């Protein structure tokens, strides 16, 4: 197992290297001048040249990349000019809020998606299967940002059940209940599409397992149908479901950008949008690389979990 984990970590290095190259090139090639964005009305040719020289933007592209990469490997992501604080500090502070939102959405999609898929497979072509299939197709078809706006209109503006936006109340205590009150709508809006995907693929995995010989043997031995479904079939199907969960983890992490804008959630997605608008290159590069690294590490954890359920994967 140790050799398998080490091999997965080593294989992640070129992936992360490729991500840094792509992010750097995109930010270097998009139109606009960071120095002009910084100076605004004071963007004279002399001031622009001075800012470019101070930021190292007048150096060759390859040299700029390796300087940035070398600093990042030592933990120095640079300083955000728009916020005037270290990039890593800002990213870590914002990532905590994103982790709460994306983590909650991931738990919802995993629990309800797997449960819906199991119930649907256990009642194939029955009323429950048709109802779940309809709900899943409806959920997958609705964009998360549109669903979020409709939830704000219905549950926040009309019914006044939940706050419209933000992570904490403007006035009052910042306790767990206040957080859950603000988290409910964005987490559900973010989880709906992922839940539908997990439910559909869980149903397919369960139907495949339910046709296996060991399931027929368990039923022939007199095992209760509930035990057959939840103890035997689901355990075998998890080998196929876990990779789907890994993909959906990346989906909710990237989809959090839209939800954070809709609900004004103070996470890393909203930070990246503001950084792009202000041409804060170091903040965008540092934020994207940090999120990508977290996603790669999570997928490694998913692969390890899958190998624990099915040792054949390690070989």
Beta percentage is under 5%
Give me the CATH architecture, please. Answer: Orthogonal Bundle
Quaternary arrangement of the chains shown? single chain
Report the structural category.
mainly alpha
- The radius of gyration is 24 Å
Order of strands, widest sheet: 1-2
The general outline is globular
- Written as H for each helix and E for each strand, in order along the chain, the element string is HHHHEEHHHHHHHH
Classify the helix fraction into a percent range: over 70%
Which stretches of 5+ consecutive residues score pLDDT under 50? none
Number of domains: 1
Fill in the CATH topology.
Answer: MetI-like fold
N/C terminus separation: 10 Å
> Any idea of the CATH class?
Mainly Alpha
Let me know the CATH homologous superfamily: MetI-like
**Largest sheet report:** 2 strands, antiparallel
What does this structure look like?
The chain is an all-alpha fold and 315 residues long. It has one domain: Orthogonal Bundle (MetI-like fold). The chain is 77% helix and 1% strand. Strand 1 and strand 2 form a beta hairpin. The longest helix has 38 residues, at 225-262. It starts with a helix and ends in a 6-residue tail after the last helix. The mean pLDDT is 84.
